[in-house]
Amino acid sequence: MTTITPHQFLGVFTITDKERTSLCTESLAPGLSVYGEKLIGHEDKEYRIWSTRRSKLSAAIKRGLSEMPIQPGSKILYLGAASGTTVSHCSDILGTNGTIYAVEFSERTARELIHLAASRNNIVPIVEDARHPTRYASVVAGPIEVVYQDVAQPNQATILYENLKTFCSFGAWGMLAIKARSIDSAANLDEIYSKEISTLDNLGLQIVDNLDLSPLEKDHRFIVCRVTEEMT
Ligand code: SAM
Description:
- With 232 residues, the chain is α/β, with parallel strands linked by helices.
- Helices cover 25% and strands 28% of the residues.
- The chain contains six helices and twelve strands.
- The strands form two sheets. It has a seven-stranded mixed β-sheet with strand order 8-7-6-9-10-12-11, with helices on both faces. It has a five-stranded antiparallel β-sheet with strand order 1-2-3-5-4.
- α4 (156-167) runs parallel beside α6.
- The longest helix has 14 residues, at 189-202.
- It is globular.
- The termini are far apart.
- Residues 55-56, 80, 82, 85-86, 103-106, 109, 129-131, 150-153 line the site of S-adenosylmethionine.
């Protein structure tokens, strides 16, 4: 028998069948699988299994995330959207009253993102470079409550801060998947993480969560931080 129960985070569910327990979200676009994920019909709804191997946000929840700022109705900016795997689950969570501005700079990858947005009214795809937030400022109707970042770039903390500064105000949230090997291919992992976290700290962001994603995501840390000072 399959049971589906609400997770402690609004818009996220736990599904248990005789084989395993997984995370899932209620689909905003029933009948459509985005990345080959399993669709489960239950009562009059459809749920999508949220893979911890394909999505760092799902892995972070599994690893004990304590704050989940992405909630029904939120307005979020997602940097490094790729073809939309995690964006699609965020879109489910936000529901029809929320909006996700999804930035991806690879035109080829963004084609799939644009295709995804055609079936979901709450996704606004933006083909741009996350290092230059002023280039897409005219498209983003703020204020943004959460900036989520998963880009393979060397200066990840700085990119997050520049976007927070451009689109957010006091109390907003940053969520950052630190991809260590995009920062330094050889240095000690703890040193890489400490440096990025110190950068966020020195910029005045309050670190709320700091999770090791391994073994679900090798060489990644997941940080949740909050704007608690004026950004200059
Ligand atoms: N977040 C996605 C998910 O969970 O479904 C996976 C993202 S993938 C690890 C990183 C993506 O960031 C790639 O698609 C890459 O093209 C994009 N990217 C890297 N640098 C970027 C930049 N400066 N601006 C926008 N996108 C960038």
